[in-house]
């Protein structure tokens, strides 16, 4: 389970998060949506121990990230698919990750297979990868330790239609295996198809949360998104 409890973050006068609370239950995919600057990355950075909250708490499987024993076995994260060393091959990136976790080399082959990077692609330098291939590698890296919680920032960005279809299947499989999946994205159509629940934030506040059906009420998620976020902008202007 992933839990944000009255989470606030203030950067030198900028209130990036304002009393944000929501839960991602085991066995579900939660889509985390909001306009540019809404506070999504700030929340994910706090959840993954890269930033400290001003107040409130963010926990994964009941603990702040920094207090997890060998976090790679509990939570898989993909915050920036472009962050890998360009001179390493995909296989080397995963091998290093596996070594850090004390996993055998066979897990690298399993993960390359899982994310659809064939032997030839796994042997190429990451600097020559397309964005979609970097996303696949980043997801593979996140899943090396078979974590029970997964936090992904825009994982479908750069994926072609076949890749996006594959991604939806992967996320559903993770949820069905009991994983808590938090998925931040601007791709509303993708989220609509894969998420069980949606959390919509704007200007650092939760504007709405619930199942896709509860939020949409017969409209598209995009219509709901635009209505709720523009309403919040008007009332805060
Ligand atoms: N390190 C920082 N210092 C100061 N302000 C920051 C910092 N990081 C983020 N902010 C501000 O916090 C607010 C939320 O930013 P954040 O990056 O979390 O939004 P986001 O929802 O992830 O946006 P996007 O969809 O564009 O990635 C913005 O006003 C941003 O300018």
Automatic annotation (TrEMBL):
Q: InterPro entries recorded for this chain?
A: AAA+_ATPase (IPR003593), ABC_transporter-like_ATP-bd (IPR003439), P-loop_NTPase (IPR027417)
Instruction: List, alphabetically, the SUPFAM superfamilies matched.
Output: P-loop containing nucleoside triphosphate hydrolases
One Pfam family per UniProt: ABC_tran
Q: Which UniProt keywords apply?
A: ATP-binding, Nucleotide-binding, Transport
The residues covered by the ABC transporter domain are 2-228
The similarity comment for this entry is:
Belongs to the ABC transporter superfamily.
Name-wise, this protein is ABC transporter domain-containing protein
- What organism is listed for this UniProt entry? Nonomuraea rosea
């Amino acid at each position: 389970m992933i839990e944000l409890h009255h989470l606030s973050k203030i950067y030198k006068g900028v209130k990036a998060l304002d009393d944000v609370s929501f839960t991602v239950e085991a066995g579900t995919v939660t889509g985390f949506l909001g306009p540019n600057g809404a506070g999504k990355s700030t929340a994910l950075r706090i959840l993954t121990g890269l930033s400290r909250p001003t107040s409130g708490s963010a926990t994964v499987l009941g603990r702040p990230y920094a207090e997890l024993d060998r976090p790679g076995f509990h939570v898989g994260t993909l915050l920036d698919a472009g962050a890998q060393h360009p001179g390493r091959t995909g296989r080397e990136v995963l091998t290093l990750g596996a070594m850090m976790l004390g996993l055998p080399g066979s897990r690298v082959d399993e993960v390359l297979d899982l994310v659809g990077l064939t032997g030839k692609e796994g042997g190429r330098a990451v600097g020559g990868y397309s964005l979609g291939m970097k996303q696949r590698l980043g997801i593979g890296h996140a899943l090396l330790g078979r974590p029970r919680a997964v936090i992904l920032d825009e994982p479908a960005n750069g994926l072609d239609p076949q890749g996006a279809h594959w991604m939806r299947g992967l996320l559903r499989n993770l949820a069905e295996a009991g994983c808590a999946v938090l998925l931040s994205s601007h791709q509303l159509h993708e989220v609509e198809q894969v998420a069980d629940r949606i959390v919509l934030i704007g200007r650092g506040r939760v504007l709405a949360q619930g199942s896709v059906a509860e939020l949409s009420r017969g409209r598209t998620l995009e219509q709901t998104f635009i209505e709720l976020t523009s309403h919040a902008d008007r009332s805060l202007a």
